[in-house]
Amino acid sequence: MEKDSKRTTIYDLAKLVDASPSAVSSVLNGTWEKRRISKNLAERVTKLAEEQGYSVNVQASLLRRERSNIIGMIVPKYDNRYFGKIAEQFEVMARARGFFPVVTCTQRDPELEFEAAKELISYQAECLISTGATDPDRISAFCAASGVQSINLDLPGKNAPSVISDNYAAARDLTKLILDRCETELGWGGPLRFVGGRLADHNTAARLEGFLSAHKERSISVPASYIMATGYSAEKAANALALFRPDHPAGLFVNSTISLEGVVRWHSELEGGADQVRYGCFDWDPFGSFLPGNVGMVEQDVTTMLIKGFELIGRPATSTGQILVPCKIRVF
Amino acid sequence: MEKDSKRTTIYDLAKLVDASPSAVSSVLNGTWEKRRISKNLAERVTKLAEEQGYSVNVQASLLRRERSNIIGMIVPKYDNRYFGKIAEQFEVMARARGFFPVVTCTQRDPELEFEAAKELISYQAECLISTGATDPDRISAFCAASGVQSINLDLPGKNAPSVISDNYAAARDLTKLILDRCETELGWGGPLRFVGGRLADHNTAARLEGFLSAHKERSISVPASYIMATGYSAEKAANALALFRPDHPAGLFVNSTISLEGVVRWHSELEGGADQVRYGCFDWDPFGSFLPGNVGMVEQDVTTMLIKGFELIGRPATSTGQILVPCKIRVF
DNA sequence: CAAATTTGCTCAATCGATGGTGCACGTGAA
DNA sequence: TTCACGTGCACCATCGATTGAGCAAATTTG
Questions:
Q1: What residues of chain A lie within 8 A of the CB of B87, using their CB?
Q2: What is the CATH number of domain A10-63?
Q3: What is d(CA A218, CA A237) in angstroms, rounded to the nearest whole number?
Q4: How far is the CA of B45 from the C1' of C5 (A)?
């Protein structure tokens, strides 16, 4: 009894209820009262549409309306709680605002990032949010040329407004926390080591600044060799630490949960001296508080960041500034 | 110099290069050689398109072509590595096959699940993969009525083919592993407790079967009160265990990483006796191996599951069977 | 040099939904 | 009986890209 070949269209329904396609259309999109369609016909159409499993061809509808309601988001990875939460919350908030959210994961690959952005724009996305993009400016530039609004999240860019965590302040506070705990628990005063990330990245740079400023505040000087920002993967963090077998108190500032995986692996393989190590991590994970030696983590305030981001939508693109959102620090 | 109002269309480009829209279209979609457009014109059009920041209106293009290339996926949460990896890999594999992947996260909410499915179908998705859906049959039924293929992943359904992990076998093996380790490390022979999940869920049921069968194989009887499948959240697991303060060896089979969070919280709050507890978890997390007491985790084989899933695409919907994919067991 | 091909494009219909315009019919008032 | 409205709908152009059909000009063939 169902169509076996094609999807049902308003023309099919029109024939079946013996009315015009435009009448059917207006019933189905809710404008029937405005268009003075009788309640009788409206009910017949609605009923039939349900029976036939009809659903609008959004392609056609949007083509005509010249609005897509699509809001795109680019995310690098789903391999930590931060980006997972961003994607989840983004979807909820977008839907609550009547958008159709499309999130796509680009593997930290600049080319793929750009391709995905172009694809989203082809789908007439009305706004594109680049999260943690490696090359946000290229994306913003393309968006601008296509007349699409773009917003940077997590990582700032020059061509579009950016909502980012206050990495500096949170890193400074986390550094102080770790130093304090080294002092009270180990009777040792630093300096800490900085593990993970890339100095060329804005976020790593800002965090390093906070890290150094906390040391400076206490007049602790940090040897250059203590800055081990050798990349993001767990392996790179583990490798950077491989030769470090402390026989005295030590402390680490870990720059992401991914790096933390490497640090914890290293830590678990220390024979003695493992209990002489304290560390903290910039980023949160639910298992973090159970890791021996971990004194605290920074949780970025995803909800606030997204709220600020959504506030920018529809605004004139004049504001190219950065919006800083404070982080929460979780002490274990 | 750019259009300030609208997106550039092929008609704009046509005027600018003084050619017909159809010539422009064929240049831009790659059919120009077939349509005997000169290389000269093709190059001029391509250049201009780039200058103008042109990108196809996919809405219009797909409307005409009557193919969307969209492949949809519904995922419950991004709050564990399993679903995160599924989403990521799905996107990579879909793109490699020329699809445009749209993943949407439905918060384990049956209504939202269904709404999202309908929305994806409105966007003319050619195939819909329901991952861990709470009500996959309702979705499959709707897809069938709309003539859209649907596939179940992770959780089986009756109206569409399903690719799922071999929960039974992996649970049996994990149970044996935990029992073995209780024996060798604690000199204690079970029975274990089963924590987390919901018995009404297919996966939990299959895992419980495996759990019980491993016990039976060793002639260990499991008291009914040891089955604590009270839900998925960390809180529920922690609550279920709250009154359990073992002063003797104990072992737990934990049904998901979410439940594991609760278990680890409980475990970390045990004063004495914490080292008399061993557990294993059905699901993998990179920090799992560092949790004291954790003897192993089951990692579901996401890659194989997705490969099997993609193999089903385009097939006649006759095959409504279940495809079982073995899991990997990680021993700590 | 005329006929036959080939080259290089243009025309116009079409996909499905939408919404401005307009028409026929019914009702009530003058 | 006539006119003014109101009701209930149909008609048709339109969004942008695509594609089969077709045509004029250039080139080759006999």
A1: 78, 105
A2: 1.10.260
A3: 27
A4: 28
Residue of A nearest to B123 (CA): A58
Strand partners, B253: B194, B280
The C1' atom of C7 and the CA atom of B207 lie apart, in whole Å, by 69
In the three-class reduction of DSSP (H, G, I as helix; E, B as strand; rest coil), residue B277 is classed as: strand
CB-CB neighbors (< 8 A) of B53 in chain A = 142, 145-146
Q: Are B88 and A109 in contact (CB under 8 A)?
A: no
Contacts of A122 in chain B (CB under 8 A): 55-58
Q: Where are the domains of chain A?
A: 10-63, 67-160, 167-299
Which residue of chain A has the CA closest to B77? A88
Domain B67-160 shares a fold with domain B167-299: yes
Nucleotides of strand D under 7 angstroms from a protein beta carbon? 7-12, 14-21
CA distances (Å), origin A295, targets A167, A171, A176, A182, A212: 18, 14, 11, 9, 19
Phi and psi torsions of A278, nearest 5°: -125, 145
- Is any atom of strand D within 7 angstroms of residue B68's beta carbon? no
Of the candidates A309, A256, A265, A308, the residue with the CA atom closest to the CA atom of residue A83: A256
Instruction: Tell me the C-alpha distance between A237 and A230, whole Å.
Output: 7
Nearest nucleotide, CA B7 to C1': D16
Looking at domain B167-299, its CATH class is: alpha beta
Residue A14: which nucleotide is closest by CA–C1'? Answer: D10
Nearest nt (C1') from A20 Cα: D10
Provide the CATH topology of domain B67-160: Rossmann fold (3.40.50)
Q: Cβ contact (<8 Å) for A78 and B85?
A: yes
Contact B122 A92 (CB under 8 A): no
Residue of A nearest to B99 (CA): A119
Q: pLDDT tens digits, residue range A269-304?
A: 888 777 899 999 999 999 999 998 999 999 999 999
Predicted confidence band of residue A1 (pLDDT cuts 50, 70, 90): very low
Per-residue pLDDT of chain B (332 residues; tens, 9 = 90+): 333 457 899 999 999 999 999 999 999 999 999 999 999 999 999 999 999 989 999 999 999 998 888 999 999 999 888 999 999 999 999 999 989 999 999 998 999 999 999 999 999 999 999 999 989 999 999 998 888 999 999 999 998 999 999 999 999 999 999 999 999 999 998 799 999 999 998 999 999 999 999 999 999 999 999 999 988 889 998 888 888 888 889 999 999 999 999 999 999 888 877 789 999 999 999 999 999 899 999 999 999 999 999 999 987 766 678 999 999 999 99
By 3-state DSSP, what share of chain A in percent is helix, strand and coil, each rounded to 5?
45, 20, 35
> Which residues of chain B lie closer than 8 angstroms to A84, CB-CB?
78-79, 84
